[in-house]
From TrEMBL:
Annotated keywords: Chaperone
Keyword Lyase: no
Domain of life of the organism encoding this protein: Eukaryota
GO molecular function, one term: protein-folding chaperone binding
Pfam families in the cross-refs: BAG (PF02179)
Keyword field contains Aminoacyl-tRNA synthetase: no
Origin species: Hibiscus trionum (Flower of an hour)
Protein name: BCL-2-associated athanogene 7
Gene Ontology BP terms: protein folding
């Protein structure tokens, strides 16, 4: 030290004013460190490896889309059968009400269509909505034909 220089040193003292603020600061420091360490572990892909990842992802997308389209196609076929059944039902209402064999035949057709619609699988919202509306309509038709079918338990 030379003559005339001041020998003071500035020291910053951190006092924890708020315990919660200190805990939050330490938590964010740990999280920032964890995120930084994850970035370091990420593998750098070669162009060929990147192409394989992209292709695999796209093929998975095509498979999901084709399943949805297949389910929508099956739903459209079932919808056309429902339209035919509805037209037949509306034209034969009186004979269905009088004839038990005719009523039994319509019930069997409706039940087989319910089973066909219920077998259609799909996670797409359009498929689920279409299935639900068709099943509701088929169940309403079945109730109109036979309001108290044998085998159903009714609460007293």
């Amino acid at each position: 030290m030379t003559k005339g220089e001041c020998s003071t040193r500035a020291v910053e003292i951190e006092e924890p004013d708020d315990l919660a603020a200190t805990v939050l600061r330490k938590a964010f420091e740990r999280r920032a460190g964890a995120v930084a360490s994850l970035r370091g572990k990420r593998k750098v892909l070669s162009p060929d490896e990147a192409a394989v990842v992209i292709e695999r992802t796209f093929r998975a997308y095509l498979i999901r889309r084709s399943k949805s389209l297949r389910a929508l196609r099956e739903l459209a076929v079932a919808k056309s059968k429902l339209k035919e059944l509805r037209a037949l039902f509306n034209s034969h209402k009186q004979s269905i009400a009088r004839d038990s064999e005719e009523r039994q035949r319509f019930s069997e057709q409706i039940i087989s269509l319910i089973l066909a619609v219920d077998a259609i699988q799909g996670t797409d919202i359009m498929v689920r909505g279409g299935r639900r509306s068709m099943l509701d309509e088929l169940e309403a038709m079945l109730d109109a034909i036979d309001p108290h079918p044998t085998g159903k338990l009714h609460a007293v």
